[in-house]
Amino acid sequence: MNKVTGFFTELMRKYLPDPFVFAIVLTLLTMILAVVVQGKGPLLVMTDWGKGFWGLLAFTTQMAVILAMGYVLARAPLIDRLLDRLIEHVHSPAAAIVLATVVGGIASYINWGFGLVLGGVVARKLATRVKGVHYPLIIASAYSGFTLYGIGLSATIPIVISTRGHALEAQMGTIPLSQTIFSWPMLTVGLVLLITLPLLNIWLLPKNPQDVVEIDRTALDAPVASPSLVHASHSAEGTIAQRLNDSRLLSAVIGILGLLYVVAYFVRGNPLDVNIINFIILFVGILLLKTPANYVATLNEGIKAVSGVILQYPFYAGLMAIMAGSGLVDTISRAFVGIATPHTLPVLGIVSSFVINFFAPSAGGHWVVQGPFMIEAAKQLGAPVNQTAMAVMLGNAWNDLVQPFWLLPALALSRLSLKDIMGYTVVHMIWVGVVYIAALSAWAHWI
């Protein structure tokens, strides 16, 4: 297995560019395909790209907030002590790899945003405390659990189609969660992955101690103080301004108000989504950091984690706009679905979804452009709509293991490069693909 991962790691080292370069190349490739395959005029393609470029602006902000403020929350003394308690009995690299994978998987099953942050933070702490941990592998291991979001409580497509008034309700009706993420095949898949991914990651541990790359503690955790606050503490000590900066009362009042809103939000029956998670992270962080000055100083450290997100996510929004405007999604789907039968449609659906996810990596946007065609194909072939919808969702979650769009948060938290961990996530992708395709194939034959 070390030879396999070594092969993929070396391959990525030689040929895989940085995520921003990858986004540029993918943009140019999509434009060329839209012109050559779909016959769209270059000017129209460029127009679609420009119009859609800021289509993920709200989502970009959500991701920036969850990364930066999630980092602040993780750095709070109380949370830091709780995480230390979680990992205090872990002393071997293998146990560290298992814990990082399980935490990343369970957290992602609960909510994808929560999983992205918590998995990376726990992996970093384990790499810092446990001697001999191969740092790129433990970061990749924590991220491998992210695929569980596709069958978890925040899986976008199953949640959307279970809600009255969704865009395709007239075409397919509503599908209860008991027929998608809470169906016994999907619950079984989740259990299988939660057991096998940690074992796979242990198998990927370097056998030669010389191949182990440990975390650079000094470079990673060097604190970054806020110059404005540091200056104020020396030049304005004892002033009203400084007392407000250091006021525990202000933090307590605004923090409690925020949490009261959260309670009221859930009492009214509202769902758990990214916005409310960000709201919770923000106000819990304010309470735990105790003063506005402490919060701002710690947030300055977390801001480093969001630069890649802010820069690159708009390029993926432009990609999705080209895919939708040119009809490339329909062309790719038809290429796979045209040879499908009722039993093979889910399998061909997941493969086509995997390919499309390189160009449209947001599950919501992915469903908007691929969903109508897939559901129509299911109706014409007499294939189960719930299985077809889950095929699209699983293809999305499967591809995310090698999709730089979603790897960016893990890279930002770890300060590693894409080529450092992609060799491992390719192996994860292969195994998860086997599990997903086998599960869909078996499910389709037990109609």
UniProtKB/TrEMBL annotation:
GO cellular component: plasma membrane
Signal peptide per UniProt: none
Top-level lineage group: Bacteria
InterPro entries, A to Z: SCFA_transpt_AtoE (IPR006160)
Keyword set includes Transmembrane: yes
Transmembrane segments: 20-41, 53-74, 94-123, 135-161, 181-205, 249-267, 279-297, 309-329, 335-360, 421-446
Keyword terms, alphabetized: Membrane, Transmembrane, Transmembrane helix
Protein name: Short chain fatty acid transporter family protein
Species per Swiss-Prot/TrEMBL record: Paraburkholderia fungorum
